[in-house]
Write a structure and sequence with these properties.
196 residues; alpha/beta; Rossmann fold; five-stranded parallel β-sheet; 8 helices; 5 strands; 51% helix; elongated
């Protein structure tokens, strides 16, 4: 015969097993809901600059599209130069290579600015804040992947607090992003942008 303490422990263990099985069976539903919660966007509004986080093609294309549609006349691109140097080697002129990539998307060379040496979203926010204050900007539209936007918005809102510069957020559209919210937890890249 089970004692009262053993009965409670057995009941708790049974409850945890049922909860775990239920969570696994219904994971597509609740993980999809988490993915949708991750997307943060503010209404599009004319901004002093568009900041493309951690240079990649889908983000760059979305930033260029926003620029082309007149949401800003300046594109600011965050580039972890040391990371690119590790990929391409020391014989590549990273600043020129990056500028060529941006200009190839149709952004005039004189409308592009760069944030160098950022190694994290927090670094990007601090560098962007300093640039925005130095240039007298009042708004900055941040572009990133859908699964990265919740964390990015949290960081940017904290870093920009009390600066007079309003961070705005525009996620790369689903059609152009590898960070699709359907089964995002099964793709390393989508899950990685949530925490990096």
């Amino acid at each position: 015969m089970l004692t009262g303490r053993r009965r409670k422990l057995t009941a708790l263990l049974g409850f945890l097993v049922v909860l775990s099985v239920g969570a696994w069976v219904f994971r597509d539903i609740w993980l999809t809901q988490i993915g949708q919660w991750l997307v943060v966007e503010t209404p599009l509004a004319k901004s002093d600059a568009i900041l493309v986080l951690a240079l990649n093609e889908s983000r760059l294309h979305h930033g260029w599209t926003l620029f082309d549609r007149g949401w800003s006349d300046t594109v600011l691109v965050s580039v972890g130069q040391h990371l690119l140097q590790n990929c391409f080697g020391s014989d590549v002129d990273i600043p020129q290579w990056t500028k060529n990539r941006v200009v190839s998307h149709g952004v005039p060379e004189d409308r592009v600015r760069f944030l160098w040496r950022a190694t994290s979203t927090f670094d990007e926010a601090e560098l962007a804040r300093n640039t925005a204050i130095a240039r007298g900007w009042s708004s900055l539209m941040v572009v990133s992947d859908r699964t990265h936007m919740r964390r990015a918005s949290f960081i940017f809102q904290r870093v920009f607090e009390s600066t007079g510069v309003e961070p705005r957020f525009s996620a790369v559209p689903k059609s152009a992003s590898w960070s699709d919210l359907d089964r995002w937890w099964t793709r390393e890249g989508s899950a990685f942008t949530m925490v990096k």
